[in-house]
Amino acid sequence: MPHITDVNSETDARHYLARLRMVEEIRVMALDPYNFEPRPISEEVLAVMAKIPRHRFVPEEEKFGAYGNFPLPIEHGQTISQPYIVALMTDLLELDKRHRVLEVGTGSGYQTAILSELAGKVYSMEIVDPLATAAADLLSKLGYRNVEVKAGDGSKGWPEHAPYDCIIVTAAATQVPQPLLDQLKPGGRLVIPVGGRMEIQKLYLITKDSAGLFQHKVIESVRFVPLTGGD
Ligand code: SAM
């Protein structure tokens, strides 16, 4: 893995300071008493976010806002999610280096890079072909070797590598796709936004116990682009 925190120039230093400020904003937002349920983000997740160059994952014309705590547009009408939401969803997975993770919605590849730092292996699916190709290229250029990106409909999962310890979906489903529930390991965790485009979507943490029974917990209200495909 590259030493992304190496600060070799004034520009690197500026990016690094901007990342630290972004991380502080996430830390504060997570504890906001007006949140659905304030919960701290683990220091491990915040440390990874302090080192990943988010500016490399956003289009040139959006770079000025790369470290703001808000979503940004990326190519093909999609978005890179708000850093606080990225931190929250990652934290809910409780990743460790033994974990194999399925990500649905590679987008820019930023969330994929975070998963790659915290898990053993990441399988990521993106329905828009050119986004999948661009993210795979960038992740490879940045030295992320434990990641595989595939173009395709992630609502069907990626059965060849199932079961997964964790599954994260970064687009909103109208209902939780059954293949993702099936491909989750007993003891596994699935984080997914659920709700239609015009509805208030809810971020769910779904856990599967050793008997294969599911528990659903609503974490927060969110707004995501829709999960497409599914036919
Ligand atoms: N996590 C991404 C990042 O860090 O840039 C942001 C993801 S963006 C909010 C949601 C992504 O999900 C979009 O790139 C969209 O094309 C993708 N998507 C939507 N439906 C999908 C599906 N059925 N399978 C795979 N990807 C899908």
Task: List the main descriptive attributes of the protein structure presented here.
alpha/beta, 9 strands, 6 helices, two-stranded antiparallel sheet, binds S-adenosylmethionine, 231 residues, Rossmann fold
Layout: helices, strands, pairs:
Elements: H1 10-30, H2 43-51, E1 72-73, E2 79-80, H3 83-93, E3 100-104, H4 110-118, E4 121-126, H5 129-141, E5 147-151, E6 164-169, H6 178-182, E7 184-194, E8 201-208, E9 214-222
Parallel strand pairs: 3-4, 3-6, 4-5, 6-7
Antiparallel strand pairs: 1-2, 7-8, 8-9
Helix pairs in contact: 1-2, 1-3
The site of S-adenosylmethionine (SAM) has 25 residues, from strand 2, helix 4 and strand 4.
Question: Care to describe what's here?
Answer:
The protein is α/β, with parallel strands linked by helices and 231 residues long. It has a domain at 70-222: Rossmann fold, CATH 3.40.50. Helix content is 29%, strand content 23%. The protein has helices spanning 10-30, 43-51, 83-93, 110-118, 129-141, 178-182; strands spanning 72-73, 79-80, 100-104, 121-126, 147-151, 164-169, 184-194, 201-208, 214-222. The strands form 2 sheets. A 7-stranded mixed beta sheet has the order 5-4-3-6-7-8-9. It has a two-stranded antiparallel sheet with strand order 1-2. A hairpin with a 5-residue loop joins strand 8 and strand 9. Helix 1 packs antiparallel against helix 2 (43-51). The protein is globular.
Q: Name the helix and strand elements from N-terminus to C-terminus, one letter apiece.
A: HHEEHEHEHEEHEEE
Number of helices: 6
Distance between the terminal alpha carbons, to the nearest Å?
A: 38 Å
Q: Which fold name fills CATH's third level, the topology of one domain?
A: Rossmann fold
What's the Cα radius of gyration?
17 Å
Overall shape: it is: globular
Largest sheet: 7 strands, mixed
The strand count comes to 9
CATH superfamily (homologous) name of one domain? Vaccinia Virus protein VP39
**Percent in strands:** 15-25%
Q: What structural class should be given to the helix and strand makeup?
A: alpha/beta
> Which molecules are bound in this entry?
S-adenosylmethionine
Average per-residue pLDDT, rounded, comes to: 94
Low-confidence stretches: none
CATH domain class of one domain = Alpha Beta
CATH architecture classification name of one domain:
3-Layer(aba) Sandwich
Strand order of the largest sheet: 5-4-3-6-7-8-9
Helical percentage: 25-40%
